[in-house]
Amino acid sequence: MRPLLASIFIVTMQDRGVFVTDFDSEVDTAARQSGFSGAVLVDRAGSVITAAASGPADRPSGLAVELSTQFGLASGTKLFTALTVMSLIESGQLRLDLPVRGPLGTDLPLIGDDVTIEQLLSHRSGIGDYLDESLFDDITDFELPVPAQRLWSTEQYVPILDGHPRVAAPGAEFEYNNGGYVVLALVAERTAGQPFDVLVRERVCDRAGVDSTRFLRSDELPHSAALGYLDTDGLRTNVFHLPVLGSGDGGIYSTVGDVSAVWRAFVEGRIVPPELVGQMLVPRRGSGDNAREYGLGAWIHRDGVLEIHGYDAGVSFYSLHHPVSATTCTVISNTGSGTRPLEELLARRIRQ
Q: What pTM was estimated for this model as a whole?
């Protein structure tokens, strides 16, 4: 078994006779100094530039993280949700301007008749949120209103999505909203007549050609998936802090390689057609003072770099894609702040 906190990039690439760059050394140093547990991948058009894996995927057993290890993506899931919804728009089953009241029926009565699919996708719906991240300095302080094991399907989220008064008029302002993306998953399920995890697999993962990206139950994770830990040391996992099975706002598991492949398939129009990709990348946040805008499911930097990220109890994820250079930089960790020491390095690297 290899060392848990060694740079796998340095070992692997030196063995192959590949020159180790200053950037590789910076990644290695940052990983060692922070006790990083996770995986890093930088590639261009699918060709690896930098790859690193370190730390334990399972602390009690000593099972080490691999580049092929599956990690939770937290809110990185939202891009998959947006693509699933857009695929239903492509097939004519939904429209961006469709009010969601119809598919919801009598459920969630506080969501107004004028709230649309596009407003939910762009975080401009104004609906109340079951998980308002602005209320917590530490996401591990959030407690689910029901036991985690009750949230095993999107339909089971309906009771916790209910009862939250709207915070703004639909379309009036940008307000990041987790609940809105669960509502989108619910609408997608009811429209297509399939469970949301099946829709994501068939409409996003299969089209992107990835097979290690799935919604996994936290109480039956395979050996290929990393356990999420609440602290940098210790054995407490996040099993009681997150739904047992994720939905539209978070909870999908993936690998650094799969994330890169999904980015490429997305921008190349292989998941949804180019015209819908273009609509997803129209900024909708609405303030020219921001360094980042938001489209549908992804953040958009002024220089054209795209970003998705997610932070949760025992999960941190950060991924950038530059369509012009076809470069992707991704880091995933099985601790809540594990990616932070590497994010600035990747943000700099994507722009070189």
A: 0.94
